[in-house]
Amino acid sequence: MADSLSSSVASLRTSLQLLESSIDILDSGVNDFPRLSKVLQTTRHFELLPEPTLQEAQQSLLDEITPSIAHLLSITTNHVERLARREDSLRAKCQLQEGRLSDKRQLPSANTTTTQKTLGAATRGSDAGAKAAQLRRLVQKKERLKYAVDRLELQSKQKERELRKSMAAQ
């Protein structure tokens, strides 16, 4: 009986050693489990979307941006046209002023010779002083009228530009 007991004890010890060895193996395998779960975990760095979803997103962006772009383009076009009209009006004004300056430079010499001839003829007559004064008044009136005509032409051009501007805005 002692023999049978000792063989049972030996068998039990062998089973315990086998069990301890299995526990050690499982422990070493399970001990590394948190690292393995992290390594094996799938991480999406880029999300894949189907092509129709991308096309819908692109179309919605296009629908959202297109009116704004069209509005900005119309504003810039109007501004460029306004600046072009302003440039034209400034050039016309410059030409008018240059014309006035050249007329003023030419008029005194031409008017003095005409005035001198007329004054010479007027001095030959009986009322030389009165005719000379009347001639000066007429020359001054002529210059005032010429200036008024130039001013009215400039106003007419300005109104034409404003009319074109209002027609373009409509």
Automatic annotation (TrEMBL):
Bias type Low complexity, positions: 110-123
Domain of life of the organism encoding this protein: Eukaryota
Coiled-coil regions listed = 135-169
Its keywords, alphabetically, are: Centromere, Chromosome, Coiled coil, Cytoplasm, Cytoskeleton, Kinetochore, Nucleus
What cellular-component terms does GO give this entry? DASH complex; spindle microtubule
Q: What biological-process terms (Gene Ontology) are attached?
A: attachment of spindle microtubules to kinetochore
InterPro entries, A to Z: DASH_Spc19
Q: What is its main location?
A: nucleus
Residues annotated as region Disordered? 100-133
Write out the annotated subcellular location: Chromosome, Centromere, Kinetochore; Cytoplasm, Cytoskeleton, Spindle; Nucleus
Record-stated family: Belongs to the DASH complex SPC19 family.
Give the protein's recorded name: DASH complex subunit SPC19
Q: Which organism is it from?
A: Talaromyces amestolkiae
